[in-house]
Amino acid sequence: MAATHGDQIVAAATARVDATLGLLRALVELESPSSEKVAVDRLIDWLQTEIQNRGGQVERLPQEQWGDLLVARFAGTGDAPIQVMTHIDTVWPLGAIERLPWREDGDRIHGPGIYDMKASVAMMLTALDILADTGLDHRQIVWTVNTEEEVGSPVSRSVLERVAREACCVLCLEPPVPPDGSLKTERKGVGMFEMEIEGRASHAGADHQSGVSANEELARQIQRLHALTDYSKGTTVNVGVVAGGSKRNVVAASARAEIDLRVTSMSEAERIVPLILDSTSLVHGTTVRITGEINRPPMERTPSIVAAFESAREIGRSVGQVLTEASTGGASDGNFTAAIGATTLDGLGCPGDGGHADSEHILRSAVGPRTALITALLAGL
Questions:
Q1: Is 351 helix (H, G, I), strand (E, B) or coil?
Q2: Cis omega before residue 62 (within 30°)?
Q3: Are 284 and 217 in contact (CB under 8 A)?
Q4: How far apart are CA 24 and CA 8, in angstroms?
Q5: Which DSSP symbol is given to 205?
Q6: Which of 26, 46, 120, 268 is most buried when burial is the number of CB atoms within 10 A of its CB?
Q7: What residue ranges of the chain have pLDDT lower than 50?
Q8: Is the separation of the CB atoms in 379 and 132 below 8 Å?
Q9: What is the pTM of this model?
Q10: For residue 104, what are the contacts with CB-CB under 8 A and spacing of at least 6?
């Protein structure tokens, strides 16, 4: 990209920071918990109008349980489009905005879902404005808007993968790695499993010997599962939710657990998943059932992703930025597109921190530069 175009983009993005924050505030105050379809569709209505006002041809995919999905297409050059991925659903329940309202504190701007990842939606809208106003050439753009990413993308995955197969590259606008705002060129894959245990109840005082404790089985299974963690391989197994028993004075007849797996490669997933699913009982008389699978495959740092990052780094220089890369244990929709072979760049959202926490925030000073980067990538890739 010519240096003059880079300067033009930077000036335009800087001039539009207040407008971008206006869009962002509207996004944040239109709450959109993944499980609240009516609320999510209200935000989808707003965003569909914003996209159509910018010339996007919108395909709205109705959903029964989750918010409707959007696939927005913008005309451009070339045979293969650029895919841009965002999601508008959040982990925050309805009413969170009352407890955690939009708040500006120095360089930090707080609000539910602002960092993960409503800032990305606002910056994408502004990037489209800049492309239109400057007349810069760019590839066709296909913008996919997901409404159930925070719960694993159960219905959108096939849509995202279908679009990715047509694209020259995929830009995932998930938040970057703090504190430096690094792009994500590698993500761990995620497995989700549930364990159910049946024992036999008895009176804990009068007839203890007749009982078979599901809780004892659970305790031993937790030790077995946690022993599968291997930091040298980047593999972690975490039993994050447990429940068991009914009363203090009753030998537990049942117990359950939810298990999280993170792996860096599919070969490691193929090794570790059968070990997790091993339902061999460790306490005589109990029955163990474990179900689950890899939900998001790893986003591996392939040669095509490395090459894409180097191209992005060169484009970043044209808008005065030095881009860095990092790996992360978290997963995103970028895992899906990378796993089918689509060249995927992730972590292009606004720098900040505190995702899913009361401290969630973005940096005001980063809004202009990150908007400029997104615009430059759309014009330069």
A1: coil
A2: no
A3: no
A4: 23
A5: T
A6: 120
A7: none
A8: no
A9: 0.92
A10: 110, 364
